[in-house]
Amino acid sequence: MTEVLDAAALAVTAAGVLALLAGPVQGWHAALGLALDFWIGAGLLRLSASTTWSALAVAAAVVAVRSLVQVGRMRRSATIRG
Question: Using an 8 Å Cβ cutoff, are 48 and 8 in contact?
Fold first, then answer.
């Protein structure tokens, strides 16, 4: 089961990298948000495979970065509309 979860986490991580590479097409903020969403999913898959403190810390760090990016996007859109 662990091998399946590791393979799935690797595939989701790769999807995040591809989403980030689409930045010039979609816009960097949208691409970064999508990539971070994929990486949150990969972190949660890894966390379900091994419940170690380091896996939990990585998942929490990605969630924190994603939250900061979302706040930045909201402030930017409020400034533009302002």
Answer: no
Q: What is the pLDDT of residues 27-47, one digit of tens each?
A: 777 888 888 889 888 888 888
Torsion of CA 28, 30, 34, 35, to 10 degrees: 10
The structural domain count of the chain equals 1
Say how far residue 81 (Cα) sits from the centre of its chain.
27
Note down the domain range covering 51: 2-81
Q: Report the alpha-carbon distance of residue 63 to residue 56 in Å, rounded.
A: 11
What are the strands, taking DSSP E only, across the chain? Answer: none
Q: Give me the helices (H) in 1-82, please.
A: 2-21, 23-26, 28-49, 53-81
Side chain identity, residue 39: W
